[in-house]
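Progress note, project year one: complex with NAP.
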Amino acid sequence: MAQVPETFKRLMVKKLTFDFREACAIEEGKAPELAENEILVKNNYVGINASDKNFSAGRYFPDSAPPFPVGFEGLGVVVQKGSKVSMQLGQPVAYMANGAFTEYMQIEESKVIPLPELNKEFLPLLVSGLTAGIALEQTANLKKGETVLVTAAAGGTGQFAVQLAKITGCHVIGTCSTDSKAALLKELGCDRVINYKEENLGDVLSKEYPKGVDVVYESVGGEMFDAGIKNLAQHGRLVVIGFISGYESGEFTAASETMSSLPRTLLGKNASVRGFFLPGHVEHIQLTAQKLIKLYVTKQLKSHVDNGVHSDKGPFKGLESISDAVDYLYTKKSVGKIIVEL
Ligand SMILES: NC(=O)c1ccc[n+]([C@@H]2O[C@H](COP(=O)([O-])OP(=O)(O)OC[C@H]3O[C@@H](n4cnc5c(N)ncnc54)[C@H](OP(=O)(O)O)[C@@H]3O)[C@@H](O)[C@H]2O)c1
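Model obtained:
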């Protein structure tokens, strides 16, 4: 077992701005004293999320003032433990907790998910996989035989929404913007891949799906939201997972025509728009995580990671490269879940 150093580095938000690089700085701190129920995790990998920029802009906790730690999820091994911890040193674990962009994470034993092995492909199952798993089951109430539209389908969370909807027995339509993403979506079993740079989403839906789609897993906003609303089936459900196209400005956009006719559209179709935010579903996390791990281990679920090897700044390694990885997510070029090795 590696010796725990007396000091270690972590990324801190020093200034509230959507520009993650400008917002953050690396800080060196003293190794913590562990409480009796806490463990110290040496992070091997951390996960990058679209909302890292929302977090650095102070949109998660409007009252919080910098400096504060940043990063939503990590994966590593237990290197120290409190007196009442039953987990063994060396145990691989993954966790979701604010402040994950750190070399060592101090966290309660009950808040981590033990893993069968140290494997970076478990990391996307956390924020991204759990969002897809819980939102489709609890919020969309997805049923076998339904038609599902997933936007940003080849991204961190989209890849799992596609696969979990296929496992449920649904017909899945996925949107993306590059050939390499389209190839991944076909490999994941997506029935209809729409590269929106080549085809218009609304036109394809109205022509090929005249009865509409039952569930929309929508994370982009703007035209994607419009097309989803316009093409909902009777009793359709559009789940707002996010609206990445509006994060930079902080504003959600949709056509005024879509918004003004929304009550009539929803009423006429017996349809609904539902919001989903993972921190509000704590009670489903452990069980869904176990389900996802089992699906992955039994090779029913693939987990595609992107460490930036194809980006100018990659492969991403070290806390210093986290800003590059966050910027990379917004280039729309990443395929699957972006991770950084520490
Ligand atoms: N509600 C929750 O609890 C929760 C949890 C996790 C994630 N999310 C949301 O899920 C969405 C995806 O997040 P992620 O972390 O998994 O990212 P991601 O999907 O890995 O990456 C973002 C992808 O979004 C697509 N995109 C479309 N329009 C974009 C634009 N204007 N700017 C940037 N990207 C655009 C791009 O793919 P294409 O161009 O190929 O479409 C891009 O690759 C975000 O809206 C995020 O906030 C929500």
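Residues 21 and 323 are 5 Å apart (CA to CA).
The domain at 128-278 is CATH 3.40.50.720 (Rossmann fold).
No further modelling is planned for this target in the current period.
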